[in-house]
Amino acid sequence: MRAGRRSRDNGDIVVGIVGYGAYVPKYRIKVEEIAKVWGEEPDRIKKGLGVHEKTVPDIDEDSATLAVEAARNALLRAGIDPTEIGAVFVGSESHPYAVKPTATIVAEAIGATPNMTAADLEFACKAGTVSIQCCMGMVASGMIKYGVGIGTDTSQGRPGDALEYTASAGAAAYIIGKNGNGSGALADIEATFSYTTDTPDFWRKPLAEFPTHGGRFTGAPAYFKHIINATQGLFEKTGTTAADYDYVVFHQPNGKFPLEAAKKLGIPVEKLKQGLLTPMIGNTYSGASVLGLAAVLDVAKANEQILVTSFGSGAGSDSFAIRVTDVIEEKRNKARSVQSYIDNKEYLDYGMYVKHRRKLKSL
Amino acid sequence: MRRVAIVGVGMTKFGEEWGRGFRDLIVEAGARALQDANMSGAELDALYCGTMAPGKLVGQEHSAALIADFMGLNPIPATRVEAACASGGLALRQAYMAVGSGMHDAVVVGGVEKMTDASGAQVSSALGGAGDQEWELFSGATFPGLYAFMARRHMLEYGTTEEQLAAVAVKNHANGSKNKYAQYQNEITIDTVMKSKVVASPLKVFDCAPVTDGAAVVILVPLEKAKKYNENPIEIVASAQASDTIALHDRKSLTKMRATEVASRKAYEMAKVTTKDIDIVELHDCFTIAEVIATEDLGFFNKGEGGKAAADGRTALNAEISVNTSGGLKACGHPVGATGIKQAVEVTWQLRGQADKRQVKDAEIGLTHNVGGSGATCVVHILKRA
Asked: Could you say which of B284, B334, B369, B381 is catalytic?
C-alpha cells in the first residue's frame, strides 16, 4: 500500500539525510515522585498526560552538550569529513546564551569550523525541524555540500505547574546532503510543507525563568490547528494520504495529543507507536519531533515512508514526507539507537531533581 | 403596569469560543434576536445588559456602551446591571420594568460573558467576587468550596448522597445532548461523575458548571404590540427579585436559599399560579447541589427530598417537572452574565414549541430562576404563552 503518487514537480528539490544521531540524558524522575511533592494523584496524571517519567540532564549538561552528543552520533553514521559541513543550525528554547550561538560550540566540537556558517534558531518546540529546513534549502541550491540541523532542549517546568511533569531534555541531529546514488543518503526528504500563524499559546519573556502558557488555549487553536493544517497541506502538495505512510511522528507534548491528532486526520494510531517517546522520556521540546524521527529511522526498512509533523508554539508546524533508502542498513548501527539511551537510566528523587535543574534558590 | 411580551430571542453557541471576543458574542446573539423578532434595530429604544466580570476577565468595563455601539444602536440609552451570576436575570427584570412602566416601547436585553481569555486562577478570583470579598474570598473560600459546605450540610440533615447529586449532572447532560447550543452535548453516567477529580469535597469536576463563553438576547415590547413582531409572543407574567446575606456564614440555613423562596412566592402570586401549573423550569444549577436545593426552595419538592427526586428521574425531560431542558448551567455551559437571559430564551422556545428533540409536551407556563453568588440575589420570572 505504498503506491502514493509523489509529485516531483511540487517545487521541492529532494535532499537526503546522510546521517542522524540522538542523545537523551540518563537521569529520570517519575510522575509519582513529582506528584508526591505537590499532593496530586499520580495515576490520574499518568492517565491524563500519558506520561510515566521524564529525563533530567546531569548537572554539567545543557542544550549545547546534548547537541554535541547528538551531532557526533550523526557524524558517526554519516561517515563524512566534517570540514565539508557548510552550515550548522541549532534550534532550542533553552540555548545557554541569549547572545552567543550554541551552533558555533557544536560546529567547533564536531570539527566543522572555520569555513562555514552557523546560527541559532528559536521557534518553541519546532526549532529543530526549522533548522533542518534551512539546511535543505542551502544544500538543494548548491550553496553548501552538507548542513547540520539540530533540535535540542533542557526545558524547564515551573514548580507545581502541569508542565513540570513533562518538560524534559533531549536532542537529535540531522546531516543533510544531496540524495541519489552514491550520495550516502539513508533517507530522502521528498517534500516539506509549513503552516504558520501568530498564535500566542506559550511564551517566555527574556528575563523570565519559566514560560507561561494559555492553559486550554494550547490545544485546539494551537497544537491541533497547526498539526492538522500542515499535515493536510503536505498531503495535498504531494498527492499522498495517510495510507501512503508506514510511520507517523507528530510533536508530542504529552502521550495523548499525538493520538488525538492522528484520529482527527484518519491515521491509524499504530503508525505512531515507534515514534512516540514522550511517555518514557517526557517532552524534549525542540528535540521531540526529531527524536521521534530518529527512533523510527532506527527500525525502518528501505522504501518505507515516514510522515513527520512538528509543532512549535507561537505557532507553526513543519510537515515532512520522508522515504527510507537501502543505505539505512549499513549506516544505522554505526551509532547508538534512541532505545539504547532510553533504556540507560537512573532515577532521581525530587530533591536531586531540583538540584540538577537549578531550581534551588537561596531565600 | 403594561403587560410585557418577549417577541425575539437569540443566543450563540456556548463553549470555548477561541475565535470570538466579548463583542463578537453579544452582537451575534443580538442580531439573531432581532431577526427572530423581524425587527429593525432602529425600532429599539433602550438596551440593558447583564455581565458579571468583564473588567477582570477581559479588561472591559462600560459594557452597555460598548454593546450599543457595536450593535449600531447609538444613541439609545444603554445600561449594564450586575448581580454576579444573576446579572442576566437582573437585566431582564430591569428591561421588563422599563417596558411595563411605559418608559420604553422596545427594549433589547442581553447577557454575555467571555471567560476563556483568562487563566483558571483569574476566573476563580473573578467569580469569587460574587461572595464576601473580605470574609469569604480573603479567607480562602472559592465558590466550589462554599457550595460544598451546602452539600455537606444537606447530606447531613437529609441523607442526600453523592450519587443523587451525580444524577442531576447525568440528567442535565442528557438534555444538553439534544441542544445544539450546549457546550457539552455528550451523555454521561453516574460513574463518570463519581470518578471525576474532587474539586471541593463532596463536589467533583462533574458536579460543577464549566467555564464558558457565550451570549443570549431577548427583545421585549408591550404585549399589545407583540403580534406585529412575532406570531407567538411569550408574556412575562411575573418578575420577582429578593436578596439575602452576601456571606454564606450569615445565612439562617445552609440548606435553603431564602432569596429563592421569597422571589418565587412573589412570582407565583403575581402570575396567579402554583408549582403545579409550571411545565418547565430553567433553574440555577451552578453546582449539582444548587439544583437539588432550588427544586425544594421553588416548592416542587419538600425540603430534603430534592436529591432523591432527581435520582428517581422526577426532574427529567417530560417527567413530573422538566428541569433544565437546555442542559442547565452544567451541560449548556455557564457564561455567567448570559445564563439568566439564556434561561428566558430556552423557556421561550419551549413555550413556542420550538425546542426540537427536547420539547416539553404542551408547555404553557415556564419559570426561570437565576441566582447570584451563594444565594444573595435571586431573580425569578414566569413566562406564559400569550
From this structure: B334
The CATH number fitting domain A15-184+335-356, selected from 3.40.47.10, 3.40.50.300, 3.20.20.70, 3.30.300.30: 3.40.47.10
Give the right CATH number for A189-330 from 3.40.47.10, 3.40.50.300, 2.40.110.10, 3.20.20.70: 3.40.47.10
Q: How far away is chain A from the Cα of B192, in angstroms, using its nearest Cα?
A: 14
CATH number of B126-208+237-385: 3.40.47.10
* Cα gap B196→B208, rounded to integer Å: 11
The contacts of residue B111 (CB under 8 Å, 6+ apart) are B49, B50, B51, B87, B88, B91, B215, B216, B217, B335, B337, B338, B339, B340, B341, B342
Residue range A172-223, pLDDT digits in tens: 999 999 999 899 999 999 999 999 999 999 999 998 989 999 999 999 999 9
Comparing alpha-carbon positions, the chain B residue that sits nearest to A215 is: B119
The answer to pTM > 0.80 is yes
Q: Which of A33, A69, A95, A125 is catalytic?
A: A125
B332 is catalytic: no
Say yes or no for a CB contact (<8 Å) between A220 and B16: yes
- Which residue, among B18, B122, B197, would best test binding to A if mutated, counting the most A CBs under 10 Å from its CB? B18
- ipTM for the assembly: 0.85
Q: Could you give the CA distance from residue B123 to residue A65 in angstroms, rounded to a whole number?
A: 42
